[in-house]
Amino acid sequence: xxxxxxxxxxxxxxxxxxxxxxLLDMTFTDTxxxxxxxxxxxxxxxxxLGEPAFRALERAEVVTALAGGGIVSFGGGAVLNEATQRDLxxxxxxxxxxxxxxxQKRLGNSRRPLVPDIESWQRLVDARHELYESLADFTIDTxxxxxxxxxxxxxxxxxxxxxxxxxxxxxxxxxxxDAERPGPKPGQAxxxxx
Length: 194
Ligand SMILES: Nc1ncnc2c1ncn2[C@@H]1O[C@H](COP(=O)(O)OP(=O)(O)O)[C@@H](O)[C@H]1O
Ligand SMILES: O=C(O)C1=C[C@@H](OP(=O)(O)O)[C@@H](O)[C@H](O)C1
Ligand SMILES: [Mg+2]
Prior knowledge:
Blueprint: E1 3-6, H1 13-24, E2 28-30, H2 31-39, H3 42-49, H4 51-68, E3 71-73, H5 82-87, E4 92-97, H6 100-107, H7 118-135, E5 138-141, H8 147-180
Parallel strand pairs: 1-3, 1-4, 2-3, 4-5
Helix pairs in contact: 1-8, 2-4, 3-4
Bound molecules: adenosine-5'-diphosphate, shikimate-3-phosphate and magnesium ion (MG).
């Protein structure tokens, strides 16, 4: 099962996602890091090729990352792609949110092409929050707690989902086994016929 972390820029997807993967001993892929490794820094891609070209590169990295499994952190806009939205049906999706106050402190000197200031971050969140929420299986607010504590909570939730899946699988296999076994079925009367 692939776990995908979505949410707005500076919500902590990259930093906390990496930590979650370490806690669970799973692989970690950040789609932005993959794009940058192959094509150079993201601001330069936006500048030289434009956003549509960046989104095409991003879609290709999403497909590769989802096929690889483990913990996958998306860039904030990756879920705008409709094929990606459909792909998330088969994944566990964790949404990271953050307050405008928390993000204001985090943005600092970091360069994000679509987020030159906090007002543009707020506009982006206003436009996307319904989409983010519609895709999420679990949502966590990263505004007020340490990254490591948030990672612990996310790892616990993922472990619970795995355990629940395992239990369902075992129940299903037991039902199959009972259905195929000759003789009285479980719950069926076993009285002697004279
Ligand atoms: N819970 C947190 N508390 C404080 N700072 C955080 C927290 N999570 C992330 N950060 C910081 O916020 C910035 C953005 O985090 P990042 O993981 O790059 O976010 P995203 O991938 O969602 O854009 C980084 O400087 C990161 O260290
Ligand atoms: O929200 C977006 O559209 C973007 C978010 C960025 O990633 P983070 O969400 O990791 O900052 C990066 O992919 C690019 O600048 C576009
Ligand atoms: Mg990131």
